[in-house]
Every structure is written in structure tokens, then in C-alpha cells.
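Hi all, posting the design record for the shared folder.

TITLE: backbone redesign
STEP: 1 of 1
STRUCTURE INPUT:
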């Protein structure tokens, strides 16, 4: 059976859901890698200070948080998933093109807010579709989600190559390219119609999410937010010590390789164990990782901490996604993933970016990492009592872990 079929009613090419989601994740995370790891370098090349870099990044994350939490769930109700995706990536491509035309802190902050309100919101949309497809037995979550990590490596290589050939100012053109490819993907490709349709007979009605959901979200926000100093300053440390762009990319790729191994390996955990084990492990790994770098902020400390990325990022992310599938009604999945994108991947990282930027003012990068270790430690303290209550999937909800 062919994986590609022309759908004349939609003017798109219909592909198998696994291929469609994997390719979407690959392209999106290539762009996300450039933003997370190289945006600080590009902003510094524009003449911004460390504090201003933290401010611009934080403003973009604020835009992402607002749209992810308040607008995205409403968009998905008003439009179908295809319409929502097309709106987001079309706007993102337009705003991305404006980065090269603006200068100064105010202009950069404004475009960063607009871009942050569109491009990164693709992430909660993909997570919602992944949850639906897993519930419909169309995909296996871990084996599809790891393609986002592979795309992340490709994005690092693309940005590193662009910076080496044309200078750090060319990093923005790599973002432009990714946005155009993502736009083409959204316009011309779509999976089969029933790929995201779960068993409606098992679908519970709408209900409010309780304190346990809030606690799990808080733990995820603290651990994910603790990556802020790494996202802002690791590229600077690596580039100042490694002149070869391929070798520099390899340092980032090392973390993502362990992330890929993590996503693949976590599939072996049962639903009952995945959430508590990975929530607590991710927080502890964050405490260890950032403390090590804070004590000796060097290239080697960053390299030695890369294996822990499998737990600090992938483990925490997998734990929350599993919690949503097993403890949250399908009717609330869009809200849950939007809340995660807003709180854990936006507001927490934005606040931590402001703190890290201010703490690292001058040459005190170690202080920024100490703050990150503090966030992870707080996550550990909250996780210890919470994980005891997260044992079995909520009654009446399907267990779709695979």
C-alpha cells in the first residue's frame, strides 16, 4: 500500500499518519533547535547585551504562553487541525521574514513576541495530534516523537553551518528556511481522515482538571524552565572553545542523541510507572546537571552533563504526555497540552531566562546555572509527595501507552 495518495477534495497529498507526524515534528524541531540554541548568538551579533538577550527571548516566550493557553484551544475548536496549522505557520513565516528588517531592542522584542505567538504554538498542536493518534492506535508515541529530536539535530547542524559560512547574522536565514518548508508541509500534506479519531465510546465527558494535574504541571514547568541558562549561554561557551563548526554541533547533538535514546527507551515503562519515575528522575537529573556546570562553567562540564538531557528534557516531557493520555479526558487534551506549552515551555523558561540573563550580567555565567539548579531542586521537593499519588490511570480513561 502506498504511503502517498492525492486527495483532490483538499488539494493535498494524503500520507500515512506516522510519516506525516514524523516529518512535521522533524521540520518543526529543526527550527526550534535554532531558536533555543543559537538565538542568543544571533541577538548578540545584533549588538544586544546579555540582559537584553534574556529580555527578547522572554518576550517571545510570553507571546507563546498567551496564545498556547488562551487562543490555541479556541482555534482548534473553531477550525480543524489542518486550518489551525496553516494559520500558525503562515503567520510564522511572515513574522520570521521581518527579523532581518528590524533593529533595536524594541523592534526585536515586538517581532519576537509575534513570532513566539505563532511558530512555537505548533508544538502543543503536534502533541494534541500525537495523543489523538496514539489513542486511535494509529502510532506509537515514543517512536514517532523521537523524530522531533532527530530534526533538532538537523536544525543545530543547519544553524552551525550557516554561522560558520556567513557569520552569526545568517542564523536568522536558517529560521526563514525552516518556516518556508513547514508552510509547504502544512499546505500540501495531510494524513488520512481517521488517523486522529480515538474510540468515542470510551471518551468521558468534559470535567475540570484537579490539583494533581496542577502539581504535575508545576513540576514539569520547574524542570523545563531550568534549561534557560543552557539555552541562552551554552552556544556561547561551546563556540568560544571549539572553532570547528561540526565539532561544536556535535556537542549539542550529543544531548539530543541521549534524548532520542530516552524517548525510545521510555516506551518500555508501563503507564503506572512512567509518570512518577520520570517526573522525579527528571527533577533530580536537572539538579545534578546544573549544579555540575555551576561549579565549573566550562565546555567539559557542559559535555559531561549532556547525557542527563535524556531525563531533564525527554523524561519530563514524556512523563507529562503520558499523564495527559492516562489521567486527562480526551476532550481536555488540547487545553492540557496548551497549558504545558504555556507554563512549562514558555512562562517558566521566560522567567528563568530573565533571571539567567540578569545573573550572568558581565561574566557571572555560573550564577545563572546556580539559579537553574535551584529551580530543579524545587521540582524535586514537589515531586517527592506528588509521585506517590500518580500510580494508576484514572478510572474510565483508556491506557494507550505503547
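Okay, here is what came back for every position:
SEQUENCE:
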Amino acid at each position: 500500500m502506498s504511503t502517498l495518495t492525492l486527495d483532490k477534495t483538499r488539494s493535498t497529498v494524503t500520507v500515512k499518519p506516522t510519516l506525516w507526524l514524523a516529518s512535521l515534528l522533524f521540520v518543526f524541531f529543526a527550527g526550534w533547535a535554532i531558536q533555543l540554541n543559537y538565538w542568543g548568538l544571533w541577538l548578540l551579533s545584533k549588538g544586544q547585551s546579555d540582559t537584553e538577550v534574556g529580555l527578547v527571548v522572554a518576550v517571545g516566550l510570553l507571546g507563546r504562553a498567551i496564545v498556547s493557553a488562551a487562543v490555541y484551544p479556541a482555534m482548534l475548536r473553531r477550525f480543524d487541525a489542518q486550518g489551525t496549522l496553516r494559520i500558525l505557520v503562515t503567520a510564522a513565516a511572515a513574522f520570521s521574514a521581518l527579523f532581518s528588517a528590524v533593529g533595536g531592542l524594541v523592534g526585536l522584542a515586538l517581532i519576537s513576541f509575534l513570532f513566539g505567538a505563532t511558530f512555537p504554538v505548533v508544538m502543543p498542536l503536534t502533541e494534541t495530534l500525537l495523543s489523538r493518534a496514539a489513542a486511535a492506535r494509529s502510532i506509537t508515541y515514543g517512536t514517532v516523537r523521537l523524530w522531533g529530536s532527530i530534526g533538532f539535530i538537523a536544525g543545530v547542524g543547519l544553524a552551525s553551518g550557516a554561522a560558520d559560512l556567513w557569520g552569526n547574522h545568517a542564523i536568522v536565514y536558517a529560521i526563514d528556511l525552516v518556516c518556508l518548508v513547514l508552510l509547504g508541509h502544512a499546505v500540501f500534506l495531510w494524513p488520512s481522515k481517521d488517523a486522529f479519531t480515538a474510540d468515542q465510546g470510551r471518551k468521558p465527558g468534559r470535567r475540570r482538571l484537579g490539583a494533581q494535574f496542577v502539581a504535575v504541571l508545576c513540576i514539569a514547568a520547574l524542570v523545563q524552565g531550568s534549561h534557560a541558562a543552557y539555552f541562552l549561554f551554552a552556544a556561547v561557551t561551546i563556540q568560544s572553545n571549539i572553532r570547528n563548526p561540526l565539532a561544536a554541533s556535535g556537542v549539542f547533538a550529543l544531548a539530543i542523541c541521549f534524548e532520542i535514546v530516552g524517548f525510545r527507551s521510555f516506551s518500555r515503562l508501563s503507564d503506572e510507572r512512567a509518570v512518577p519515575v520520570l517526573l522525579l528522575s527528571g527533577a533530580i537529573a536537572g539538579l545534578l546537571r546544573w549544579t555540575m556546570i555551576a561549579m565549573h562553567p566550562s565546555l567539559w562540564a557542559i559535555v559531561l552533563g549532556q547525557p542527563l538531557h535524556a531525563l531533564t528534557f525527554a523524561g519530563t516531557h514524556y512523563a507529562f504526555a503520558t499523564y495527559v493520555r492516562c489521567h486527562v479526558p480526551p476532550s481536555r487534551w488540547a487545553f492540557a497540552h496548551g497549558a504545558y506549552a504555556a507554563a512549562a515551555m514558555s512562562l517558566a523558561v521566560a522567567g528563568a531566562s530573565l533571571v539567567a540573563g540578569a545573573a550572568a550580567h558581565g561574566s557571572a555565567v555560573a550564577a545563572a546555572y546556580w539559579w537553574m539548579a535551584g529551580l530543579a531542586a524545587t521540582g524535586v521537593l514537589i515531586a517527592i509527595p506528588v509521585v506517590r499519588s500518580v500510580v494508576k490511570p484514572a478510572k474510565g480513561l483508556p491506557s494507550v501507552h505503547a
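COMMENT: The two ends are 24 Å apart (CA to CA).
Let me know if anyone wants the other runs.
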